[in-house]
Protein: 3-dehydroquinate synthase
Organism: Desulfobacca acetoxidans
Amino acid sequence: MKQVWVKVDPWDKKRVTTALEGGADAVWTPPGYAAEVKTLGKIPVIAPDGDLAPGQDLFEVTLSRADDEADIAAKAKTHPVVVHCADWTIIPLENLVAQCPANLFVEAATVEEARTFLGILERGVDGLVITAADLGEVKQLLRLVKEISPPVELTPATVASVHLLGMGDRVCVDTCTQMGRGQGMLIGNSSAALFLVHAESLENPYVAARPFRVNAGPVHAYIRVPGGKTRYLSELKAGDEVLVVDYSGRTLPATVGRVKIEKRPLMLITATHEGRECSTIVQNAETIRLTRPDGEAVSVVQLSPGDQVLVALEEAGRHFGYKVTETILEK
């Protein structure tokens, strides 16, 4: 996830509250204001008397010649580095993004600058320090960074079979985000093949819509979370982040507000794509839905062989949630 810090120099209480309300990851203040920031909200303070001290916990470096790039890359191996450049051009920034796998920050005063910095080499810098004077632009910049989430590639798979199973411990993931048509979470028996399980955002005659919820599957199943990782559903708890995905592949991080685990009857769904089989287990109930390629939700009790549903496929295996290149067979 991209980081975003807001510079508050000179001191401005309204600027701090704007940063807090916009979800900033830290505020950067002059000396002597760390305690005052803490009275306004819980957020890391960058200052000599704050949580992160410049020159100790992070570094500021001016890029003036090519030789500076090696110094920046060396510092970025262990600490955040804020790079200053009087006249940014694409090439030096591309060089830095390529050389620094993490911890690379730059200052941004406009939305246009931020878009450029965040898009370099399709990866972008790791964080922005917002220096815009106008509070309206500060809000725009905060939204821009916080709403950035890489898309995922979704593929139509053809349902091969639906089998009823016995009882099991099923997980509902309740988030702090409202989801709509075509949105849900990626769940599956294998991290290499995750089904787009639709949110409970549809009205039905049985229970009220709960657009903040995905009835995801049993405790063993994988779920995609931000950062390209997966986790087991059984691991999730309030305050964790999961990835909301829509039928076009757009993604959005969402905070878990509650996880409900209850014993429910289950069913196994298998599907294929170009000879590759994938599967997931869900609760056997009409309100649990997968997602068709056009974004429409389809109840799992109405699925038939030949129906198409969306899945996310990948070749690599997973080790503690991280993608790895090794032979892993999951059945």
The mean pLDDT is 91. Residues 16 and 54 are 19 Å apart (CA to CA). The longest helix spans residues 135-146.
